[in-house]
Write a structure and sequence with these properties.
By secondary structure, the protein is mainly β. The chain has 3 domains: about 100 residues, Nuclear Transport Factor 2, Chain: A, CATH 3.10.450; about 130 residues, Nuclear Transport Factor 2, Chain: A (Roll), CATH 3.10.450; about 325 residues, Beta-galactosidase, Chain A, domain 5 (Distorted Sandwich). About 10% of the residues lie in helices and about 40% in strands. It contains 7 helices and 30 strands. The strands form 5 sheets. It has a 10-stranded antiparallel β-sheet with strand order 15-16-17-18-19-30-27-26-24-25. Strands 9, 10, 11, 12, 13, 14, 23, 28 and 29 form a 9-stranded antiparallel β-sheet that branches. Strands 1-2-3-4 form a 4-stranded antiparallel β-sheet, covered by helices on one side. Strand 26 and strand 27 form a beta hairpin. The chain is globular and about 80 Å long.
């Protein structure tokens, strides 16, 4: 065993990456798990929730010189099968030692992807579940029954204390490739003890009543079943005969003045590091680290067990662990660069998600245009954007995470939500007030998708201040005699409590991240503004069992001084968490946040009452936000884009007005 460990460590040493922020390699994951197992004396019951990079201190990253020795530390969460509690620790991969271990007896690890089907098997093996199916005439359909695990939350139900549970919902197929979400089996909820993989109980809400029938209308989407399609359009190809304009060196990407590092981990998924912009040989930092640090999906129905639908897809499952392998020509078009993703499985073995991250360019339309009516000359410039994306499937839903960098300095995040809406059954024609009937007897319930972006800012350096900008229209009077006056009033946010803010349409509110020590050519602090384009009011009550655990959703903006330990806005261990952790707890200290190293947390999302058009697979709906230069540049940063004309474009039916 010692020889095998030495070989594993030697392999990891030879596979050292180029930069301190590079994600762990497969060899490093193997080395970390081997060291942890050795620390626990090869305990066969030890399982791994997490093995990923412990990011070095900022001063270490900023002072790193290419080719210099690298600190490589892995962070891990491990637990013993069948037992409550998590071992949280660090592994120094250079020294080859477990450098820190802390046991947290009251927390529980995430539900892992490997456990999804185990939970279904445990449910199907329980005679109480089979009896509930038989009461519905489905006892002979067990092979077609599908049991989806949901995190159980913290609802104070007697008998659930201290356990790691999955609270499940049930559907069925009519045949093997059928879309089972078209056939919900309403009112059966199996509660599974995930650590012991046994059924704690079976809740049958129709044990003493006539059940809602299973909807039987087939509504499918799989190309192996669907044979009739609308006419296809003619090919629309994205062709770059000379290749792309980006350059990839390991995890570093450079593109038309921009540079950044691409990262990934099992919890947050896609992470961007050290986003900066260069002009005339001068590089200017903008964002040190950007990620979507948490998301929660609360449902709005109190019928039967549906109040328990309140899942934290990052903190309870691991958003990155459920990422897709992307396919050229389907998920991504054009000249594509893919990054593979390395994560650990339950046993601590490296697991590769091939093509987990996609990098490409897209046309982004007009950059600017002007027609001078006196000279009758027109100047037009087009611009493009760089796209870094990944797609995650969480049960029935797909989430496409897209970061865009534009030539005009804008940084945008867009979440594209698609997949299959979570369905329940109703008496046909009677969906109730919490849902929309999307097919006969099938409903989609009202819910929200609420995200928290963690934006570790460094606009022209690490010392930044957030300024709130509100548009003010004074009343008619001496200051406003004609009723036409309005202006922007700026207020620095100097403490954490003062920075608990919400968007306000009436004041066209936005927030600037300024650097008070760096001035533009008109003497104002350089800045980027956070433009909140997809803010959502949270309707889950903050004192309810779900609202207590999701405190971050009640403000659209939070600002904290940087702390390496403050990574997750609702707390680090979300599964069955009691609530009150994360941003509400941190910001209660009311630390100063002026002219210092700060982190912005932006809550945004989707308010979703399903439509008939969302079934059987929802067209992409979008939400996100924009970071926009506001006094960062001294003039329009794309004013000097060279004039050009796309020679591949063709006029349909008549000559172009601009042709020779």
């Amino acid at each position: 065993m010692a020889l095998r460990l030495e070989e594993t460590l030697a392999t990891a040493a030879m596979a050292l990456p180029d930069h301190p922020l590079d994600p762990l390699s497969a060899a490093e994951i193997s080395a970390a798990s081997a060291l942890v197992r050795a620390h626990f004396e090869q305990d066969p019951s030890l399982l791994f929730e997490t093995i990923d990079l412990e990011e070095p201190a900022k001063e270490v990253v900023r002072s790193h010189v290419a080719g210099a020795p690298l600190p490589r530390v892995a962070r891990f969460n491990a637990y013993r099968k069948g037992e409550t509690g998590v071992f949280k620790g660090l592994v120094d991969l250079v020294a080859g030692v477990v450098s820190k271990v802390e046991f947290l007896p009251g927390v529980r690890p995430m539900i892992s992807p490997e456990e999804f089907m185990m939970i279904e098997e445990a449910a199907k093996a329980d005679p109480r579940f089979i009896a509930a199916l038989e009461r519905r005439g489905l006892g002979d359909k067990l092979d077609l029954i599908c049991v989806d695990p949901w995190s159980a939350g913290n609802f104070g139900v007697p008998g659930e204390e201290g356990k790691r549970l999955a609270h499940t919902f049930v559907w069925m197929r009519m045949f093997p490739l059928d879309n089972y979400y078209a056939h919900p089996v309403e009112g059966i909820n199996v509660v599974v003890d995930v650590d012991k993989m046994v059924v704690l109980r079976v809740d049958d809400y129709f044990a003493d009543a006539e059940p809602i029938p299973v909807p039987e209308t087939p509504v499918n989407y799989d190309s192996a079943i669907v044979t009739s399609y609308q006419p296809a359009g003619k090919p629309l190809d994205v062709v770059q005969p000379d290749g792309p304009s980006f350059v990839v060196e390991g995890n570093k990407v450079s593109w038309l003045g921009w540079d950044l590092r691409v990262g990934f981990n099992g919890r947050e998924g896609l992470v961007l590091h050290q986003i900066g912009h260069s002009r005339d040989g001068r590089r200017r930092p903008i964002v040190y680290r950007a990620s979507i640090a948490e998301m929660v999906v609360p449902y709005g129905s109190n019928e039967r067990a549906h109040h328990r639908k309140n899942v934290f897809d990052s903190g309870e499952y691991g958003f990155g662990r459920l990422a897709n392998s992307l396919e050229l020509g389907c998920d991504c078009l054009g000249h594509i660069h893919y990054f593979d993703v390395q994560l650990s499985d339950l046993q601590g073995n490296p697991r590769t998600i091939k093509n987990g991250i996609c990098l490409h360019e897209e046309d982004a339309g007009l950059a600017w245009k002007h027609f001078d009516f006196r000279t009758e000359r027109t100047e037009t410039r087009r611009m493009r954007r760089l796209v870094i994306s990944s797609i995650t499937t969480v049960g029935n839903y797909e989430y496409g995470s897209y970061w865009y960098l534009y030539q005009d300095g804008n940084i945008e995040f867009e979440m594209k939500a698609t997949g299959v809406i979570n369905t329940a059954a109703c008496i046909p024609g009677n969906p109730g007030k919490y849902a929309t009937e999307v097919a006969p007897g099938v409903v989609g319930q009202i819910h929200q998708h609420l995200f928290s972006a963690r934006l570790d800012m460094e606009v022209d350096g690490p010392a930044n201040t957030v300024v709130e900008c509100n548009t003010v229209a004074p009343p008619m009077g001496p200051e406003n005699p004609y009723g036409n006056v309005f202006y922007v009033e700026e207020t620095p946010l100097t403490t954490e409590l003062a920075a608990r803010r919400n968007a306000d349409f009436d004041q066209q509110r936005y927030w600037k991240i300024t650097n008070p020590d760096v001035r533009n050519w008109v003497g104002k602090p350089t800045a980027y503004k956070l433009l909140p384009t997809s803010v959502v009011k949270a309707y889950t009550h903050p004192e309810g069992p779900s609202g207590k655990r999701a405190g971050f959703i009640y403000n659209h903006l939070w600002v904290t001084p940087f702390s390496a330990d403050e990574r997750y806005p609702a707390g680090e261990f979300m599964n069955h968490s009691p609530g009150g952790e994360g941003l509400p707890d941190w910001t209660a200290r009311n630390r100063p946040i002026e002219n210092t190293d700060i982190v912005l947390w932006h809550s945004f999302g989707l308010h979703h009452l399903p439509r008939v058009e969302d079934h059987p697979v929802q067209p992409c709906v979008r939400c996100g936000f924009m970071l926009m230069p506001t006094g960062f540049f001294d003039r329009n940063p794309v004013i000097d884009l060279p004039p050009g004309k796309n020679e591949a474009s063709r006029s349909n039916g008549k000559a172009s007005c601009c042709s020779a």
